[in-house]
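My convention is simple: the sequence line spells out the residues, with the fold written below as integer tokens. I include a record here:
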Amino acid sequence: MRGTDPRVVLGLHRSRHERRLLTGALDLGVTALDTSSNYLGFRSHQVLARTAGDLLPKFTVSTKVGYFPGPDGAEHSLVPMRLRTAVEQAAEDLGREPDLVFLHNPEHSLREAAPHNPDALVQACATLDDAAAKGLCAAWGVASWDPSPLVSLIDTTVPRPAVLMVRAGLLVGARTLDAADVLAKAWGLGSDEVWGMSPFGGSTSTPVWDRIDPRVFLRDDSQLSRVQAAFRATYHLPRVGAVAVGTDEPAHLGELVGALAGEVEERTVQEYRRLLRDRSPGQPA
């Protein structure tokens, strides 16, 4: 069964938040924007509103809460009152309610919180669920860099997010890919309700991209570059409906949008995942 068409989300992690990037994205038909309360030294929301406030209504805007300024840098917290205040502050700083607010890397605090508060995840998710119900954001989700610790915690007491965001792509290990699949199934999320992030593991200039040719994952590898092929394969590792990717160059963003025309060979993806599991003993089959 064919899913929805793959979408590109412009991610602002490490971005300079320049106006030309946002106008370039709109010109390319990229109308989803993803940021976080802690991006750009906890100034992302304010800078966006100041430099491109008139453009924001043209985007669906997602952001994240969970990291807060601390005496020694950023600190993570799942305390409900802090999360609710952060959602309220995001709307105030952006000048509009976000379309989507993610609970940012809840696994960061869960191991520490568990002995004292085993319901920390339930309470954090319930806080965002309540924020959406009260109109502080249109919907909420969970963004997890390492979803494995969440797998054993998801049951009927944990509210269902609208979107799950996880690492995706050829550099993601079997453990993370399998955990993402388990979480999506546990929450009853379709592929269009799962987003990928960090498709290149940080940078397209990493030496690994010179050593492999991701075009083997495509049905027709003659039209796309290696970078484009790696990006297109990301939508199947795990299966996601959108990928958030960061860049400061509209030309690079355009290259990635062009990659969506490629078609992925699913059998090759499944064989690749089997190989990953074979190299990771103890992973679920």
Summary: The chain has eleven helices and ten strands. Strands lie at 7-11, 32-34, 60-65, 67-70, 73-76, 100-104, 140-144, 163-167, 194-197, 242-246. The CA atoms of residues 172 and 237 lie 8 Å apart. The chain has a mean pLDDT of 92.
